[in-house]
Amino acid sequence: MAHQNVENNVVIGQSQQPASYKYPLGSAILASMTSILLGYYIIIMSGAAIFIKDDLKIPNVEAKILVAGVASVFPFAGLTADWIGRRYTMVCAFATFFSGAVLMGFANSYFLLMFGRFIGGVGVCYAFMIAPVYIAEISPASCRGILTSFPEVFINVGILLGYLSNYSFSKLPIHLGWRFMLGAGAIPSVILAVCVLVLPESPRWLLMRGRLGDARQVFDKISNSKAEADSQFADMKAAAEIPENCTDDIFQVPRRAAVWKDLLLHPTPSVRRILISVVFINIFQQSTGIPAILIYGPKIFQKAGINNDTGKQLATVVIEFVKVPCTLVATWGLDRIGRRLLLLVSVAGMIVSLVGLGVGLTIIDHLDQNQKLGTSLCTTTLVFYVAFYSIGMGPITWVYSSEVFPSRLRAQGASMGVFANKLTSGIVSMTFIYLCNGITMGGAFFLLAGISSVAWVFIYMFLPETKCKTLEEMRTLFGLG
């Protein structure tokens, strides 16, 4: 590249002053709090559905559809982000989730419940698409991995709030308890919408819109030095095809083909490879079993031989406590070990754990004299599965999806990945119990182990290492340079 990369100097120790990125760190934490909504959305209906079934007298199939939710993002999140900007897209996401939560809280029929669930799903998916994209666009290359993995950490906060809400409101009368569980999600959405307004707009979005003066001001805030800001700004101008000698505050950006055409209709070979990589890593993140573990954890523990309600709830809490520190391990290792190695180790551990879980459940089904062995094997391997998922496949999917696309394609490309992710999650959630009934629960986990093996091969073959590369340098990894 024409300009020396100051961020790389920080990484290899050539800088005279250690990097201090307080501004992007604060912005990343605040933006990452959007994923609280996703964690809450995943968990809250699993507790509320029990009371909804009794209150509204709905059949089991409809209750399962409620729990699974709806993958309602489609590619429109990216269009919105490119149109009004990353920051205001987050505000729109909160407003949409607020509307869904209120609708669910006041619903008096299954139709209104599903409509509110759909609206809330739109808000959740918008928020979880835009947060990693925004963080990637304001983060220095040397710490982009750890900052972009923060949303996965805050998912666990949302899950914890969902558990607390389910527990707290379960003591109310049946016709009120589930309404408070679902409606309470409106409160954090209002608080977070107000907080997000203090964030700066993404400098790369500003540059794409030709607002060079505003973009330069943000680069000055998020960079560790003037030299680093100069380097980032010059590289971004070159990637956006803005003349190097242009010093205007407003630049008339040339009209180009619609983004979706460059993504789907006429992609270059490199863009096609990026899109395939992002879509399939999102599919594999969900199809390797995590929705089944989170939603049907108590049923899995019951099958494993833990029959009392207290034991099942305690086991579920243990899983959550394992997930949080392992996710923090991933945030530490992303910019030190790298995305690719962590992913390969993560998925390899998941394969072994899923095989062990399948063996344990098969022992319980067929060998009465070895029930304790089966129970011990199931609980141990389930904890290991969550641990290995959390050190790689969980957080790195979002990091990778948000950083590999060229700036102009990033928002809409990432939204397609999120759509694939949520669609797969819904399919796994709705079909897991039927799969267990058809091939046994042990057989279902053997199948998930097979899918995980395919995922490992895909990662090894398709995903290059992106550690410490600037967003503009991604072009060379996929043949765009």
UniProtKB/TrEMBL annotation:
Q: Name one Pfam family in it.
A: Sugar_tr
Task: Describe the family membership recorded for this protein in Swiss-Prot or TrEMBL.
Answer: Belongs to the major facilitator superfamily. Sugar transporter (TC 2.A.1.1) family.
Species for this entry: Liquidambar formosana (Formosan gum)
- GO terms for molecular function, please? symporter activity
Residue ranges annotated as transmembrane are: 28-52, 64-84, 91-112, 118-136, 145-164, 176-199, 341-363, 383-401, 413-435, 441-463
NCBIfam families on file: SP (TIGR00879)
Question: Could you give one GO CC term from the UniProt record?
Answer: membrane
Lineage per the UniProt record = Eukaryota, Viridiplantae, Streptophyta, Embryophyta, Tracheophyta
Name of this chain's protein: Major facilitator superfamily (MFS) profile domain-containing protein
Cellular compartments annotated: Membrane
- Stored PANTHER family: PROTON MYO-INOSITOL COTRANSPORTER, SUGAR TRANSPORTER
Gene3D superfamilies in alphabetical order: MFS general substrate transporter like domains
